[in-house]
Each structure stands twice: as structure tokens, then as C-alpha cells.
Amino acid sequence: MKTLVKLLMVPIFILFLAVPAFAQEEVALEEEFSLIEEAGEGVITGDVTTLDAGAGTVSVKVTEGSAMTFTVVDGETILWRGIEDIELSDIRVGEEAEVGYYTNESGDLIASWVDVLVEEEVVPVEALEAEVTEAE
């Protein structure tokens, strides 16, 4: 009976030691995310709600929350749709976009990059095999 109790105590003791380690890791991640938010950096994904190519701004609304307006800096902000480089005027309201941004000294949100998301075409393996066979 004493042997059984000892055998049961070992896993409980190991579990007891492991719980604080997991808690410390979670706290460290929360602190890291907090520092990123304080620095005003981040990435959001949502629908383009407004676009002003003349003013160099684009607004994106995430599903939960309000729209965020970003300044697009000519020669600095990278714009693309899939793998194709685009201009700000090529973006359309309603398209889904991902924006990497930072906050400048004045508190403005500056877009580092804007990626207009495109649906990837899924090609069945059979179609690819047929193309290879035809090419031979």
C-alpha cells in the first residue's frame, strides 16, 4: 500500500512543479504583447472601408471593433495584392487586406505594408497530372 501511495505521489509532485513554469511563460507572453501595443505596432486584417489616394490614407475595419485609418507613405509603404506590386489607387473598398503598422512620434498610424488578400486557386492534383501528361 505504501508503495502505491509513493507511486501516485511522484506524478502529482511533478505536476505541482510544472504548473508555475507554464504560468510564468504565459505572463511573459502577455508582457511581450503589452510592450508591442504600447509601442504602437501591430498587424490587423479586415475589410477596406475607405480609401483616399490623394491624401494617402486607407481605413480598415476589423470584424470586432472600429475602423483604423493608416497613412500610406509614398516610397516607404509596400503595397501588394498576392505577389503583385500595386498602387494605393488599385485597392478597392470592400476588399480584405492585412496591414502591418506602427505609430509615429505624432501618434499617427503609419502602414509599413498593405497586402490585399486574394483567394488562392485550389487546383486538384488530377488536373496537374493531366497537364504534365499533355506536356510530355
CATH-scheme architecture of the largest domain: Beta Barrel
Run of helices and strands: HEEEEEEEH
Task: Compute the CA-based radius of gyration.
Answer: 25 Å
Q: According to CATH, what is the class of the largest domain?
A: Mainly Beta
**Counting H and I runs of at least 4 residues, what is the number of helices?**
2
The major beta sheet can be summarized as: 5 strands, mixed, barrel
Tell me the number of structural domains. 2
**The CATH fourth-level homologous superfamily of the largest domain:** Nucleic acid-binding proteins
Shape: flat
Low-pLDDT regions? none
Architecture overview:
The chain has 136 residues and is an alpha+beta fold. The protein folds into two domains: 1-39; 41-116, OB fold (Dihydrolipoamide Acetyltransferase, E2P). Helices cover 36% and strands 32% of the residues. It is built from two helices and seven strands, in the order H-E-E-E-E-E-E-E-H. The chain has helices at 2-39, 125-135, and strands at residues 42-52, 57-61, 67-72, 78-81, 84-85, 96-103, 109-116. The protein has a five-stranded mixed beta barrel. The longest helix has 38 residues, at 2-39. The chain is flat, with a radius of gyration of 25 Å. It starts with a helix and ends with a helix.
Give a quick rundown of the structure.
The chain has 136 residues and is α+β, with helices and mostly antiparallel strands. It has helices spanning 2-39, 125-135, and strands at residues 42-52, 57-61, 67-72, 78-81, 84-85, 96-103, 109-116. The model has no long low-confidence stretch (mean pLDDT 80).
